[in-house]
Prior knowledge:
This protein is of the alpha+beta class and 413 residues long. 38% of the residues lie in helices and 23% in strands.
Amino acid sequence: MAMIKVQKGTKDILPNEINVWHFMEKKANEIFNKYGAKEIRTPIFEATELFARGVGDTTDIVNKEMYTFEKSERSLTLRPENTAGVVRSFIENGMHRLSAPVKLWYKGPMFRYERPQAGRQRQFHQVGVEVFGIKQPTADAEVILMAVNYLKSLGLNDLTVEINSLGCPTCRENFKNKLKEVIKPYLSQLCEDCQTRYEKNPLRLLDCKVPECQEIFSKPEIQAVIQGDFICEECAEHFEELKNYLDILGIKYERNKLLVRGLDYYNRTVFEIKSNNLGSQNAVCGGGRYDSLVRNLGGEDTPAIGFAMGMERLASLIDVSNIPEEKTTAFVVSNNTIEAVKLTEELRAEGISTEFDLTNKKFVKQLEKASKVANFAVILGEDEIASNSVTVKNLLTSEQKTVKRGNLTENLK
């Protein structure tokens, strides 16, 4: 019978790899909690309409990449990103009544049907933050700082922060019209996707990675529009304030006017954080402001900003030698299986992770096993049983001492 293998674009996270994932999750909880963010866990699938309305029906995600299925005449989709789901939960659970800002963070799997590449699978994982209720650029600065500090907590220091402002809907409409005007003479030379984007969402033309399209966009008359300042006075003031806050906070950044982000809901501030240790696909974090999304999904008018990071890509950059190996605290070494079981359960009841040899191998084999999986060997021979004591061996230093059984927990802790 043929062996059933893991599906293309998915990957098992094995026990010898899980340490780095626990590290990323622990640091997320630690860093984001310092900023007052609370964890939220939303369903893995949602109504398809949520992503069509939230992410935007002109995006590649909605048009090409979603895993959508029918159940009881309802269209459901595995989440391709989590901002829309968090916004849906924010509205449905009345979080707009909470004191602003409402800060939420999440982690978990996302699903997109696309060509698997380094650091990106069809089932992949993201960690992210969403902040609701603050329109001032203080929120933008804090969210960027939160992302930078999280990455630094993982040991990633060689980072580049790129920022841009897309302006408000009026700014964007003016920019779209100017962009379409200068690109129109070259429309037939663009790739098929860009010809579709030209009509539906011209801003996303700047996302295209096709070399022939990039060459066209580098023409002087097109660059003059791209590099021009099209945002209105109010949006420009918001952007200048953000840059001032970043300067005060010591966050080095570059302005990238080609940065538009791939999702339709962004306005004003957008940003990416890149690792200089990756190749061309070097973005490790992307985010921005989405002040109209809550309203578009049926909620009250609520400003918001957030970011997401691909955890597979982060895992590939983390120096695992700096992460302490996760070992069991104690391993009970004994040829008296009944006493070994009793002692193991006593220690577990006290909150100490403990194992013993289920097959009752020879004493020396049990010690060998203990040295591989635990920090301490708790030796329970006939003499120890008779004297109601145990011998504790530190498997890192080889030091050992005999203690009364009643004092064992205290000694291990």
